[in-house]
């Protein structure tokens, strides 16, 4: 038999690190509601006060990714242990104009942004004389411009240094096609940043993305961005805000993206009433159909990081295992234990939808197998979000050399 062909390495087609413990960072000007939102998302207790730079060191926590599929499996199996998926969130101190040149708390906080993998860009859309604003007036579009400009200028500094280093290298060695391509990439990125356009909004080849991931890891504007607009409770409930169309126009002109209107005031009142069901029911009835935006925020943040999860389910435990979108079965097995990946034999798989449709309400695979929905997958199987998997593996201890 001819030797098996080696698998070709798949091209990198998106910016960022490839791992399962990625983080979203809350970014914005001081006093727009970042720490209050962080507390609500993560049931945390980060300081949230009415003065600039209340947050200095970044606060880190995690919040549960809501999922009816996980709830169904738990209700069905009634396991002793229930472990959902989590989104890791970092509350980063407020940036101000000039941060890229050291203003405010400056470059230290820009480095905190560089340490996360995606950004919740938070702006304030309501006036309130009792809550100070760093620019003395509320203008969400101006705030979007300020933060975007600071991030672009920080990246521009990185690119200028990279270009200077390449020029020095070119003086010492003969120019190669690879060096020419990299210099062209740097100049292309520089032109975008000088136009105040984040790198992620450009059109890039797989080779260019791979080059950025390998050689320009510190770039900030490659990170996925979700725009959060903090409204007053009245604006949120009435679904009326003059700033939202302006924010939408700005976002469309800067590469597009998801915009999530929400209200810290509304979410805080819901949270405060959580232990009084009758009062909470009355509050929600008066809210004219408004619902919490937090679950959507978490789900979209998780998705923007290209994370998915598969389930293991039984009477002992129902658990979500976070992996990167596109992971193969052995890599997914490695999320449970490195031995599972090293000794991978096969994966016994059923999609959540098929499991629910064919189990006849029983915590069993018998009827699912009878329906032909229980599959055996090998090393080339790309795990899908919501798969229920049982791995078969075998790890033989290495024999000691005599």
The number of helical segments is 15
- CA-based gyration radius: 24 Å
Order of strands side by side in the largest beta sheet? 2-4-1-5-6-7
Strand content: 15-25%
Mean pLDDT rating? 87
Number of strands: 12
Largest sheet: number of strands, sense, barrel closure: 6 strands, mixed
* Name given to the CATH architecture of the largest domain: 3-Layer(aba) Sandwich
What best-fitting shape do the alpha-carbon axes yield?
flat
Structure description:
- The protein has two domains: 23-303, P-loop containing nucleotide triphosphate hydrolases (Rossmann fold, 3-Layer(aba) Sandwich); 307-393, Ubiquitin-like (UB roll), CATH 3.10.20.30.
- Helices cover 40% and strands 18% of the residues.
- It contains 15 helices and twelve strands.
- The protein has helices spanning 34-42, 68-77, 106-114, 140-172, 177-194, 206-215, 233-238, 243-253, 264-272, 277-286, 294-304, 329-336, 338-342, 352-358, 366-370; strands spanning 23-27, 59-64, 81-83, 86-91, 118-124, 225-230, 258-262, 307-313, 317-324, 344-351, 375-377, 387-393.
- A hairpin with a 3-residue loop joins strand 8 and strand 9.
- Helix 4 (140-172) packs antiparallel against helix 5 (177-194).
- The longest helix is centred in the middle third of the chain and has 33 residues, at 140-172.
